[in-house]
C-alpha cells in the first residue's frame, strides 16, 4: 500500500511524540487522524515494551480506538489532573496558539488539555501558519435557539479584526453534525484572525456558545512532521527547536493499520 506524504508526516510527528509518554503517567489522548497514529503507536509500545499508563480520551472515537489497542482508559473525572496531553491541530501559529475542532471534539479537547501539566501538539508541516484564520473556526453551540446564537455571532464579528465574516452550520449528510455532548458546530469563515484573544473572549460571552476552537496559551510543545520522516520539536518554554528523524519503518504497522 502506498502511503501519502501527508500520512507519513502525521505518523512521524505522532511516533516522535509517543516517546514523551512514560510509565505511570495519566495522558490525554487527542482526536483526529494524527492522534489516531499516536494511539496506534502507543498501543505498540503497550504491547511490545510493556509501557503502562492511563489514557483519558477526548472523544468516543478516541476511546474506542484506545480500547481496541488495549490501552487502559479512564475518565477525566477519575484522573482529575493529567501529566500530559497529546493532540492534533488544524492550525498552529508561531506562538503555538491553535485552531482546533476540525473533527468536532474541541470541547473535550480543550477541557482535557487545560487540565494537563503539558500539552504537546502533533501536526504535519502544512498546519503551520503565520496568522490563524484560514481554517474555519469551529464554535460549539447549544442546539436550542441556535439560529439566534448564530445571528449574535455574526453581529459580533462586525466589530472584530477579521477578513471574512460568513458562518455555516456543520452538517453530517442532511442533518446537523452533533458533538459528543449533543451540541452543534457553527464554522466561522474568517480567513485571518487579527486579535484571537479578543475574539475568543467575545464569542464565549454569547449565550448559547459553549466553547470556541481557539486554543490560546495552552500548547507547550509542537511536534511537526514532514513527509520524509523529519520531525521538528519546538518547545515554547525553552524557545529551542530540535530536529530528529523518525525511522518510518518502525511505524509501518501503525501506518498500515490506519491506512486500512
Ligand atoms: O481538533 C481536532 C479534532 O476536533 C483535530 O485535532 C484536528 O482537526 C486535526 O485533525 P487531523 O489530525 O485529522 O488533521
From TrEMBL:
Its EC number is 5.3.1.6. Keywords: Isomerase. The keyword Isomerase applies. SUPFAM superfamilies: D-ribose-5-phosphate isomerase (RpiA), lid domain, NagB/RpiA/CoA transferase-like. It holds the Pfam family Rib_5-P_isom_A. Substrate binds at residues 31-34, 87-90, 100-103, 127. Pathway: Carbohydrate degradation; pentose phosphate pathway; D-ribose 5-phosphate from D-ribulose 5-phosphate (non-oxidative stage): step 1/1. It catalyses: aldehydo-D-ribose 5-phosphate = D-ribulose 5-phosphate. Transmembrane segments: none annotated. GO terms for biological process: pentose-phosphate shunt, non-oxidative branch. Homodimer. Belongs to the ribose 5-phosphate isomerase family. This is Ribose-5-phosphate isomerase A. The gene is rpiA.
